[in-house]
Amino acid sequence: MHHQNGIAKKRICKLCKGAQTSLLHAMQHWINVIFSNLWPFTLKNECEVANQVKQKGGLSAEAKFAEVKQ
Fold it and tell me: How far lies 56's CA from each of 1, 25, 53, 61, in Å?
């Protein structure tokens, strides 16, 4: 339990970098409509995508959390 903080920090960093990349990509393609105030929505989307992507064991993070095999 003592070392869980590092795992959480890594996950948050990964989510922030992914959200930043997505937002910058969208800003390049839709200059007049995408602004940085969409950050919370981008971060939420990145989190949802990361939770649904299958990992090494063949399960998504949501499936592991719910202990359900898909």
Answer: 23, 27, 10, 10
pLDDT for residue 55 is more than 80: no
Domain borders along the chain are: 4-66
Contacts of 57 (CB under 8 A, 6+ apart): 64
Pair of tokens at residue 32: 């007049």
pTM of the model: 0.75
Sign of CA dihedral 33, 30, 36, 60: positive
Whose structure tokens read 């990964």?
14
Give the Cα separation of 19 and 41 in Å (integer).
Answer: 9
